[in-house]
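Our preliminary data section would be incomplete without showing what the modeling component actually yields. Below, a chain of 378 amino acids is followed by its predicted structure, encoded as tokens that our downstream tools consume directly.
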Amino acid sequence: MLSDELLQAIITIGASQAFTLGLLISLKRKRGKADIVLAVVFFLLFVLILLFNYRNELNAISPGLGLYSMILAYAVIPLTYGYVKMMVNTFLWPVDLKHAIPFVIALAIMLWFFYPLPESERLAIARDFSRSKEIWCNIIYYGLFALVFPLYTIFSIRTLNQHSEKLKTRLSNIDEESLEWLAKFLRGLFIVCVIFLVFEVGLEKQLEIFGNDESDLAIVIPFLALVGLIVYAGISALRQKIIFVDTEVNNVISNKPKYEFSNLTEEKSKKYLDTLIKVMEAQRPYLEPKLTIGELSQKVGIPSNDLSRLINENLNQNFFDFVNSYRVKEFQILAKKPGSKQYTLLSLAYDSGFNSKSTFNAIFKKITGMTPSQWMNS
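Predicted structure:
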């Protein structure tokens, strides 16, 4: 087992990382509302981790002060969900303020039931909060880890997935817009929650093996996983220029009803489809890595809403898959040419219009059922 000193050092590093990320974001000159929310999330994580890490020392000052790490978690998790909704333009003010209700309830329970108690009772509860027999303790403890934490993490992941699908109706390359670092961070949070539940379910068994001195294991390990996630966020989010660099964000996603302005008839569909196929084969617009549906709309002379509907309903594809299927065909043509073996697969992929290795590999396997190297060998 790690020593207490090493554990505290690791967790303090995670807290410092969270503070640094919050500071970097808050110092942006062109801050948006989403930036402010994300900065607050990281600052709260900083305080939350310190409250947890030094809870025993804080109990000597004021019994139960460390318990506010859990109360702050009730704020951090819905705030993260709010940040996700702001980033994908689905946050509704003031309707979405309802997500503050879990935090308000948890805080009210603490103030109502905990602080009127004598100091000796508060200290006893603070030392062994997770196994307290008090109903209000269980409501706060399990309400966070078994309800609010997993539910809001799932909500956030689902919202990002929906956003990614919407992007695919407008863009042929979504790497710079898909918030993949955030999606991975949220999936990591969900894993942290699962880790906690697994350890918490087996807590009694742990007590048999490790004894009372190791009873914090059920929550220390998830906190270490959380620290790892924060470090990951610091490394990967730096690559997402939209977060730390003062750039304008173009809103490529419309929240209007699907095909609201489309009056596509069967006769028009056939005509448009012929035109679309001819342009794709003759002009090869898919070689432009950042081709959007608006740009293709101008090239083929078809309104973008009609073009989107045409691809969805007549070809059973979204814009992303439609364009990238042509890029896969282009790659296969280039790979079969004499002398192609002197080039790398990635080089041929870039020449085919792809702009990232991950997208190329994923879409190629989706269409052909093989990886690019497997296809080459076959």
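The longest helix spans residues 135-167. The chain has 18 helices and no strands. Preliminary results of this kind motivate Aim 1 of the renewal.
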